[in-house]
From TrEMBL:
Gene3D superfamilies referenced in this protein's UniProt entry, alphabetically: CV3147-like (2.40.390.10), CV3147-like domain (3.40.1610.10)
Positions of the S-Me-THD-like C-terminal domain: 170-355
Name under which the protein is recorded: DUF917 domain-containing protein
SUPFAM superfamilies in UniProt: CV3147-like (SSF160991)
Organism: Sinisalibacter aestuarii
Ranges of residues in domain S-Me-THD N-terminal: 13-167
Superkingdom field: Bacteria
Length: 358
């Protein structure tokens, strides 16, 4: 049992950012810039309180805040700092009530730390949980969709101050329309959506995400290059591969970063090769025609020399890496969930099989 994180200061934020990069499965945006912005908000002595969903009354309004766009664009067009107050004010106007707490919509990458900026700026607590348990590339890919919760009303702002609101007929339409506007906004925007009460999400929130990210960050700090093996053991995962990156193919399609990474085996994996496919996040790991892992299980690339997670937008030729597979939250293994986030949704010609950790 992990001790829950209660207050997040700068050291805790660094651990959460690093753990979030692992849970991001290569995507969600590199948390480095977001962490620096959050640290600036925290200053030397400020902390963000972390609350359990169970500690909030049923009518408490919770607002997820996130960055939307392709990961490498989000690194180049990071927030101005004015978007969050505008988002919160707009959402409070739309909902007709005050926000009680901030939530991470996903546990991974940049969006594991962006909500801390919001919490620090607005003087609000952040909930220890999220709606993915990892990172996924599209807005409708959340546990809230499975629970029938609407993404809208939704607001979004860019770094120039342009804002928009949405009221859509489905969460899939929210994704389509918001993605199109994100492209017009330069490929990245700050969004507030899935505003919910605590009572509405008691059965659909993936609880303890921030505590888990913090624990992963602690293990990386402690074990360095041996962190992948330690994480696999601690989190019920598996070491899928060890090798050197031999080719990276990356392209931008509709505000998504898509492509593949080819890895040549080293050590015990010498003479073998692995191909990772990604759409913002790593979605498949295939060795010589055999699928080792697919979404919704997590596939994370780790620097073999440092133990640091490697995002899809920064992986490069020649890097020595280890490939870590981690099991997804059980909520993603139903037929309804797999239709939303499973391999065939992304055009991968394979049925989902739970990660083999034997």
């Amino acid at each position: 049992m992990m001790t829950p994180v209660m207050n997040v200061d700068k050291p805790a934020l660094r651990r959460i950012a690093r753990g979030g990069a692992v849970l991001g499965s290569g995507g969600g945006g590199d948390p480095y810039i977001g962490r620096l912005m959050a640290e600036q908000e925290l200053g030397d002595d400020k902390t963000v309180p972390v609350v359990s969903l169970d500690d909030l009354p049923d009518d408490a309004l919770i607002l997820p805040i996130a960055m939307m766009g392709a990961p490498h664009v989000m690194l180049e067009r990071f927030p101005s700092g004015r978007e969050i107050p505008a988002l919160v004010a707009t959402m409070e106007k739309l909902m007709g009530r005050k926000v009680s707490a901030i939530l991470c919509i996903e546990a991974g990458g940049l969006n594991s730390v962006i909500p801390f900026i919001a919490a620090a700026q607005m003087g609000l607590p952040i909930v220890d949980g999220d709606a993915m348990g990892r990172a996924f590339p599209e807005l409708q890919m959340v546990t809230f969709t499975l629970a029938g919760i609407r993404a809208t009303p939704m607001a979004m702002y860019d770094d120039k101050g342009n804002g928009a609101t949405f009221d859509t007929v489905s969460n899939q339409w929210t994704e389509r329309l918001a993605r199109a506007l994100t492209i017009e906004m330069g490929g990245a925007a700050m969004v507030g959506l899935y505003s919910v009460t605590a009572g509405e999400i008691r059965d659909s929130l993936i609880k303890g995400s921030l505590t888990l990210a913090h624990r992963i960050g602690e293990l990386i700090e402690t074990y360095g290059s041996q962190a992948p093996e330690t994480l696999a053991l601690s989190l019920g995962g598996a070491m899928l591969f060890h090798g050197r990156v031999r080719d990276v193919e990356r392209r931008l399609e509709g505000a998504f970063a898509k492509g593949s990474v080819k890895i040549e085996g080293q050590g015990d994996f010498r003479g073998r090769s692995l191909t990772l496919g990604f759409q913002n996040e790593f979605l498949s790991a295939e060795e010589d025609g055999r699928m080792l892992a697919t979404t919704p299980d997590l596939i994370t690339l780790i620097d073999a020399n440092t133990g640091a997670p490697v995002p899809t937008d920064t992986v490069k030729y020649g890097l020595s890496v280890k490939v870590l597979g981690l099991p997804c939250d059980p909520i993603w293994r139903s037929e309804e969930a797999l239709a939303l986030v499973g391999p065939r949704y992304f055009g991968i010609d394979a049925d989902y099989k739970p990660l083999d950790v034997a």
